[in-house]
Predict the structure.
Amino acid sequence: TIVQAQLPAYYDYLHLYNEANELFEKDKFGAAQKKIEAFLVFEEDLRTHDAFDLRANARYIQAVSAYQLEREDAESLLSQFLIEFSENSKTPLASYYLGLHHYNRRKYSKAIGPLVAAVKSSALNQEIFDEVVFKLGYSYFKDDNLPQALHYFDMASDKKNIYQEDAQYYNAILLYQQGSYADAYSALNAL
């Protein structure tokens, strides 16, 4: 039709992108990943600034969907996103997901870098920030970096959140290990 003839050549690909984004927002990660992969196959010729933003978001959807689906390529997709789009507004969240990927696999040493990058940004909502702070404390604890663990457990126990009591418990353990028995006793009594 005449209207279709006047549309930009990338309109069909933009439609794929929008469908993938909607599926992603509805937590339909498998379907979102299929749509976004179809979009990525055809977007290579799109090099305008708008297309770059679409490409970045498409890569983000692809990577986070892989994480949510526990696919083997999640780590590489998240890492590639962080390299290719280091200045993108979704970088802190991609760092968060990469950190969680390692944390959930008990690779605490590898989780620390991405979680530190995520917590340094101001882009995280309070719930994710609280989670990252606690998981950093635990990662440092498991990595035997007790001063850093204590620092993050202190941060996590300072305000009311779902990690507060766990952080206070680990904080008490660390204080006890350091020989601060009175402080450890007070921390345990606060639970």
In short: The radius of gyration is 21 Å. The chain is about 75% helix and 0% strand. Residues 49-68 form the longest helix (20 residues). The chain has a mean pLDDT of 88.
